[in-house]
Design goal:
By secondary structure, the protein is of the alpha+beta class. It is 32% helix and 19% strand. It folds into two domains: 3-187, no CATH class; 195-303, no CATH class. Strands 1, 4, 5, 6, 7, 8 and 9 form a seven-stranded mixed sheet that branches. A two-stranded antiparallel sheet has the order 2-3. Strands 10-11 form a two-stranded antiparallel sheet. Strand 8 and strand 9 (145-149) form a beta hairpin.
């Protein structure tokens, strides 16, 4: 797909940058610091993958924009995802100032030439989760924005006319699975310093971002304050109401589970969590919301 672009600068840079990202971003370390993106080397010379000041990177000498960037801001400063999802389930990315700005023209050229881009999404100050390749599939001049497809299925979705409920639902699921959920996971795990809030396990591949209120519910927003970093066993136990978290951050294990007799996993992995205090993020704004905890705790009590 990328190789079909030939040996032009646009094609070579994109191929090299995405190959580097595939090697650089592993399951254990999927995020990239800003400094590494700025110091990327292409054919022996510096070639930043992001602009030092702007959200759209359109390098000199290239035909079209190379990347887009969404900066990190705290949950309290704005909605978790400022770039809105349209009625077709596709994400929108806003122009950089005046629509005739060279960066916006670069986005339009990427659309016209069907060139893939990289999207760097901020999950903490100076730390980004990359999504690639992504494609500009529509330029909406009146709204000063472009529509972005996250995969091939969204890329071929018809957006110049009415979209059926089935198509919209399918596209929205892709957006949630491909961008919202990974960003939520990384933001929560970073806030908890790559450690389970209950047992302190620090293996990233064994950690999840557990929702307090499930994301299938309208107020189950993908915000850090609606999440906790939990290892897979404690995430499953929390979802199944085997254990709960009180609004004062104290862990409770369901009474019938406390009375069971089984092997060491039950004793040390679950029963030993009873009456322990949740380990919280350093920043107060990242800590679990009291109202959400209280609502979820009442569900835990009802299940018991």
């Amino acid at each position: 797909m990328i190789m079909s672009l030939g040996n032009d600068l646009d094609g070579r840079v994109r191929a090299a940058a995405m190959a580097w990202l595939r090697q650089r971003c592993t399951p254990e370390d999927p995020v990239v610091p800003r400094g590494e993106l700025l110091s990327f080397q292409f054919e022996g010379r510096p070639f930043p993958l992001i602009d030092n000041q702007l959200g759209i990177r359109k390098p000199q000498g290239m035909t079209a924009a190379l990347s887009i960037l969404t900066t990190y801001t705290s949950d309290g400063a704005r909605a978790p995802y400022e770039d809105a999802v349209g009625g077709d389930g596709l994400l929108r990315y806003k122009f950089q100032g005046n629509r005739e700005h060279y960066t916006n023209v670069g986005l339009q050229r990427a659309f016209e030439l069907r060139l893939p881009l990289m999207w760097f999404f901020g999950i903490r100050q100076g730390l980004y989760l990359p999504f690639f390749p992504v494609w500009i599939v529509a330029v909406e001049v009146e709204q000063s924005q472009v529509a972005v497809a996250l995969d091939e299925a969204q890329r071929h979705l018809r957006i110049d006319g009415p979209v059926s409920l089935i198509e919209r639902g399918y596209s929205e699921r892709i957006t949630k699975q491909r961008l919202h959920q990974p960003v939520f996971r990384q933001r929560v795990i970073q806030a908890y310093e790559t450690s389970c809030a209950m047992c302190h396990l620090r293996h990233r591949s064994l950690l999840d971002a557990a929702h307090i209120i499930p994301d299938r519910e309208t107020h189950g927003v993908p915000a850090i304050s609606n999440g906790m970093a939990l290892c897979k066993i404690h995430h499953a136990a929390y979802d199944e109401n085997i254990l709960g978290v009180r609004p004062d951050y104290v862990i409770e294990v369901r009474s019938d589970i406390l009375e069971e007799r089984d092997g060491p996993m039950l004793r040390y992995g679950l029963q030993a969590m009873h009456d322990l205090r949740l380990t919280l993020p350093r920043r107060r704004m990242d800590r679990p919301d009291h109202n959400l905890l209280e609502e979820r705790y009442e569900r835990f009590r009802a299940a018991g």
